[in-house]
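lol forgot to send this yesterday, sorry. struct tokens for the thing we talked abt
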């Protein structure tokens, strides 16, 4: 059994298809099939149920998969650490973040890249639940996730460090007059404003609708069904206001925010990595950069609180 055989096994398990796996690994299909057959012979067990158009794991394959993923992740860590001993002149960091946290990531990456310009950086931008899955399968080394993110599959544990707590805020265009002279805005005032509503798939939409309903208020919706970037662009152009997490205001100088009088939702932002995989030196350095940046962001915005 060797690492190449394990990598081939994990890729076939991930894609559920020998041809697509061979293309992903830049191998011929016969070579890939021989590697899997040799691995099965060495282990004395079949790893896949093979049927036309359908490849699935056997019980032995399901047992091997998390161990193989862990071994490959550890092997990658060893390679990277050997190349990083000379002061982080080489290395790789694969990190993930939800779209609403890209402003925080951009600041952290800028700081990290100035200090370690030769380290490769790979970003996966996705929702927290999918990022938890990517951590579980070794697709990313570290990820920013929200508190509501699901737990990974059984047998995989994550170490989560709570960084920030942020409120929902009401944003509007800086080209228009402020929404209020006060430091906060009430739900009654919000309901009277032209509201840009998110697509119904967003939990933000459900949370906002529920808060208004609980106060017996009906929003004055001017536009609905938009995604995050579209909502922010429409708000920047003065079409209406939007209720968004405070963090999205980073690098949005055309928007201003006001806190809600009685914040009805906060979310916790955590930094996560697999508990059973030791972070490589470059990954640990990026982790420190993110933690430092998060603390700096919290000092600039009263709607964001540091939890460290």
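and heres what i got for the seq, position by position
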């Amino acid at each position: 059994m060797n690492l190449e055989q394990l990598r081939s096994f994990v890729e076939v398990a991930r894609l559920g298809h020998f041809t697509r796996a061979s293309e992903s690994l830049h191998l011929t299909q016969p070579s890939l099939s021989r590697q899997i057959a040799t691995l099965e012979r060495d282990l004395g067990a079949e790893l896949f149920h093979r049927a036309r158009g359908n490849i699935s794991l056997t019980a032995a394959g399901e047992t091997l998969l998390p161990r193989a993923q862990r071994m490959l992740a550890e092997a990658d860590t060893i390679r990277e650490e050997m190349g990083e001993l000379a002061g982080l002149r080489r290395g790789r960091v694969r990190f993930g973040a939800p779209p609403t946290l890209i402003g925080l990531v951009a600041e952290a990456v800028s700081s990290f890249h100035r200090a370690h310009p030769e380290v490769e950086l790979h970003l996966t931008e996705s929702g927290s639940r999918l990022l938890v899955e990517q951590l579980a399968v070794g697709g990313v080394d570290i990820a920013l996730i929200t508190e509501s993110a699901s737990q990974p599959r059984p047998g995989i544990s994550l170490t989560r460090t709570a960084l920030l707590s942020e409120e929902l805020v009401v944003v509007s265009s800086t080209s228009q007059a402020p929404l209020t002279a006060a430091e906060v805005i009430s739900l009654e005032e919000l309901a009277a404003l032209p509201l840009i509503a998110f697509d119904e798939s967003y939990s933000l939409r459900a949370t906002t609708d529920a808060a208004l309903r609980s106060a017996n208020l009906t929003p004055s919706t001017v536009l609905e069904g938009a995604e995050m970037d579209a909502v922010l662009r429409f708000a920047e152009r003065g079409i209406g206001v939007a209720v968004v997490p405070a963090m999205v205001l980073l690098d949005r100088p055309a928007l201003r925010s006001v806190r809600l009088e009685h914040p009805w939702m906060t979310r916790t932002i955590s930094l996560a990595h697999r508990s059973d995989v030791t972070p490589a030196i470059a990954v640990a350095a990026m982790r420190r950069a993110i933690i430092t940046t998060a603390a700096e962001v919290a000092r600039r915005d009263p709607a964001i609180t540091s939890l460290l």
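Residues 59-84 form the longest helix (26 residues). anyway ping me if u want another try
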